[in-house]
Amino acid sequence: MFRNNPEVLAYFNLSNQRKGRQPHALAQSVLDAVSHLNNLGDIKHGLLTIGHKHCALGVLPEHYGIVHDNFLQAVGEILGDAVTPEIADAWSKVLIHVAGACIDVEEQIYEASAARPGNWH
Protein backbone atom coordinates (compact mmCIF):
# COMPACT_ATOMS: atom_id res chain seq x y z
CA MET A 1 0.00 0.00 0.00
CA PHE A 2 2.80 2.41 0.85
CA ARG A 3 4.45 1.87 -2.54
CA ASN A 4 1.18 2.59 -4.33
CA ASN A 5 -0.01 5.35 -1.98
CA PRO A 6 2.86 6.85 0.03
CA GLU A 7 0.58 9.67 1.17
CA VAL A 8 -1.10 7.32 3.69
CA LEU A 9 2.17 6.40 5.40
CA ALA A 10 1.66 9.28 7.86
CA TYR A 11 -1.42 7.53 9.26
CA PHE A 12 0.51 4.45 10.36
CA ASN A 13 2.89 3.82 13.23
CA LEU A 14 6.16 2.79 11.58
CA SER A 15 7.30 0.81 14.61
CA ASN A 16 4.09 -1.22 14.49
CA GLN A 17 4.63 -1.71 10.76
CA ARG A 18 8.15 -3.05 11.23
CA LYS A 19 7.08 -5.39 14.02
CA GLY A 20 4.12 -6.71 12.02
CA ARG A 21 1.53 -5.39 14.45
CA GLN A 22 -0.31 -3.17 11.97
CA PRO A 23 -0.88 -5.85 9.32
CA HIS A 24 -2.01 -8.24 12.07
CA ALA A 25 -4.40 -5.62 13.48
CA LEU A 26 -5.87 -4.97 10.02
CA ALA A 27 -6.29 -8.70 9.37
CA GLN A 28 -7.94 -9.19 12.77
CA SER A 29 -10.30 -6.27 12.15
CA VAL A 30 -11.30 -7.72 8.77
CA LEU A 31 -11.87 -11.16 10.34
CA ASP A 32 -13.98 -9.66 13.14
CA ALA A 33 -16.04 -7.72 10.63
CA VAL A 34 -16.56 -10.72 8.36
CA SER A 35 -17.59 -12.81 11.36
CA HIS A 36 -20.23 -10.21 12.25
CA LEU A 37 -21.09 -9.03 8.75
CA ASN A 38 -24.83 -9.38 9.23
CA ASN A 39 -24.73 -7.41 12.46
CA LEU A 40 -21.77 -5.05 12.73
CA GLY A 41 -23.43 -3.66 15.87
CA ASP A 42 -21.97 -6.68 17.65
CA ILE A 43 -18.51 -5.19 17.17
CA LYS A 44 -19.50 -1.59 17.84
CA HIS A 45 -16.92 -1.25 20.63
CA GLY A 46 -14.14 -2.25 18.21
CA LEU A 47 -15.48 0.10 15.54
CA LEU A 48 -15.52 2.94 18.08
CA THR A 49 -11.94 2.21 19.13
CA ILE A 50 -10.80 2.21 15.51
CA GLY A 51 -12.91 5.30 14.82
CA HIS A 52 -11.33 7.30 17.63
CA LYS A 53 -7.83 6.37 16.43
CA HIS A 54 -8.72 7.27 12.86
CA CYS A 55 -10.26 10.60 13.87
CA ALA A 56 -7.24 11.48 16.00
CA LEU A 57 -5.08 10.91 12.92
CA GLY A 58 -7.40 12.75 10.52
CA VAL A 59 -8.37 9.71 8.47
CA LEU A 60 -11.01 10.63 5.88
CA PRO A 61 -13.57 8.55 3.94
CA GLU A 62 -11.47 8.66 0.78
CA HIS A 63 -8.69 6.78 2.55
CA TYR A 64 -10.89 3.70 2.70
CA GLY A 65 -10.80 3.44 -1.09
CA ILE A 66 -7.01 3.27 -0.92
CA VAL A 67 -7.15 0.44 1.63
CA HIS A 68 -9.85 -1.33 -0.42
CA ASP A 69 -7.86 -1.26 -3.65
CA ASN A 70 -4.58 -2.29 -2.05
CA PHE A 71 -6.21 -5.03 0.03
CA LEU A 72 -7.75 -6.57 -3.08
CA GLN A 73 -4.47 -6.27 -4.96
CA ALA A 74 -2.57 -8.00 -2.13
CA VAL A 75 -5.14 -10.81 -1.92
CA GLY A 76 -4.84 -11.30 -5.67
CA GLU A 77 -1.05 -11.38 -5.52
CA ILE A 78 -1.00 -13.85 -2.64
CA LEU A 79 -3.78 -16.19 -3.78
CA GLY A 80 -3.28 -15.83 -7.52
CA ASP A 81 -5.75 -17.69 -9.72
CA ALA A 82 -7.76 -18.78 -6.67
CA VAL A 83 -9.22 -15.27 -6.67
CA THR A 84 -11.90 -15.52 -9.31
CA PRO A 85 -13.81 -12.41 -10.39
CA GLU A 86 -16.70 -13.57 -8.20
CA ILE A 87 -14.47 -13.92 -5.14
CA ALA A 88 -12.86 -10.53 -5.77
CA ASP A 89 -16.33 -8.98 -6.13
CA ALA A 90 -17.52 -10.59 -2.89
CA TRP A 91 -14.48 -9.30 -0.99
CA SER A 92 -14.96 -5.87 -2.51
CA LYS A 93 -18.54 -5.76 -1.26
CA VAL A 94 -17.45 -6.86 2.22
CA LEU A 95 -14.75 -4.19 2.38
CA ILE A 96 -17.15 -1.50 1.17
CA HIS A 97 -19.74 -2.57 3.75
CA VAL A 98 -17.23 -2.50 6.61
CA ALA A 99 -15.75 0.79 5.41
CA GLY A 100 -19.24 2.28 5.38
CA ALA A 101 -19.73 1.27 9.02
CA CYS A 102 -16.36 2.77 9.97
CA ILE A 103 -17.08 5.97 8.07
CA ASP A 104 -20.45 6.31 9.81
CA VAL A 105 -18.82 5.94 13.24
CA GLU A 106 -16.07 8.40 12.35
CA GLU A 107 -18.54 10.96 11.02
CA GLN A 108 -20.37 10.81 14.37
CA ILE A 109 -17.09 11.32 16.22
CA TYR A 110 -16.07 14.24 13.98
CA GLU A 111 -19.53 15.83 14.40
CA ALA A 112 -19.44 15.44 18.19
CA SER A 113 -15.99 16.97 18.25
CA ALA A 114 -17.08 19.92 16.09
CA ALA A 115 -20.09 20.51 18.35
CA ARG A 116 -17.90 20.96 21.45
CA PRO A 117 -17.69 24.54 22.71
CA GLY A 118 -14.93 26.33 20.88
CA ASN A 119 -14.75 23.41 18.41
CA TRP A 120 -12.09 21.91 20.66
CA HIS A 121 -10.87 18.48 19.56
Draw up the topology in text.
Layout lengths: L13 H5 L2 H15 L8 H14 L3 H19 L5 H31 L6
Give the DSSP E fraction (strand runs of 2 or more residues): under 5%
Q: Determine the number of helices (DSSP H or I, runs of at least 4 residues).
A: 5
The secondary-structure element order is HHHHH
The biggest beta sheet reads:
none
Describe the protein in words.
The chain has 121 residues and is an all-alpha fold. The chain has five helices and no strands. α3 packs across α5. The mean pLDDT is 89.
Which features does this protein show?
121 residues, 69% helix
Short description:
The protein contains five helices and no strands. The chain is mainly alpha-helical and 121 residues long.
